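1st attempt posting a full record on here, be nice pls
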Amino acid sequence: MSDVSLSEADRGGAPAPAGLFAPLAGESHATPRDFIALLKPRVMSLVIFTALVGLIRAPGEIHPVIAFTALLCIAVGAGAAGALNMWWDADIDAVMNRTRNRPIPAGKVTPGEALAFGLTLSAFSVVVLGLLVNALAGALLAFTIFFYVVIYSMWLKRATPQNIVIGGAAGAFPPMVAWAAGAGTLSLEPMLMVAIIFWWPAPLSWPRAACRGAGRAGGGVPAGAGGGAPEETRRQILYYTLFLVPLAASPAFLGYAGPVYGAVALGAGGFMIRLALRVFRRREGEAAVKAAKGLFGFSILYLFALFATLLGEAVVRALWP
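the predicted structure (as tokens):
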């Protein structure tokens, strides 16, 4: 477990409830639902979707059983990384309202069980993907899990306000892993998909940090950019969005995607920039909160629209070559 101690300031001045850490050890009362919660199902759903896009767009043909195996292993690997993240972050999860009911701080799953669960699923997903699909995909999945658990969770999450962007790199890798599973090689197109997802978390998550006006997300974890200063966070949101929009449109201009994708990327991207400008300009009060919520909500739709269009174009091309 992490050796980072939490001060009163890290907890917003409120002491942890009595006995909160007591359930972190001892007899388990876990149910299957608790272990499913360790997998972070909502994050896993995004991983499966973006991996499916990478797999469908990869050149060549792949047997349906192999394709299913690849997606299953990528999903299990993502869930394993989520379980190991919850194991490591149990101390900060226990003092944050948003996460204190997760299985470990709630006393439903012991840290040892979560660690064993995560390591077992990690080994299973990597070995099966490497043996039944190909070694490149297995190696990339292993690196993805390592990056999220060790580089992000254990090292950089508590060390830098850029943690949301760095952590986004691990969430960006699944379409590349899936592409490698389908094609056996890598090319620029899956790298562009990775880059789009990598740059996307900043306009998704930082608007909330800008509205809070604080430099920490809770539990001692830095939030926002520029040390958490709201002014710098708003500026960085705008910078990241201005870079993300042309990056997201680049597959169309480079010939990897069709005109429909280009229109969606430019239209939705223009609206993203408008919302980021609104966050930058509205600094206080209800208007600032409304602007932040607007950018947060639309950014989810934005990424979905991009990858859904990539998927749709690939399906149409396969059905009507």
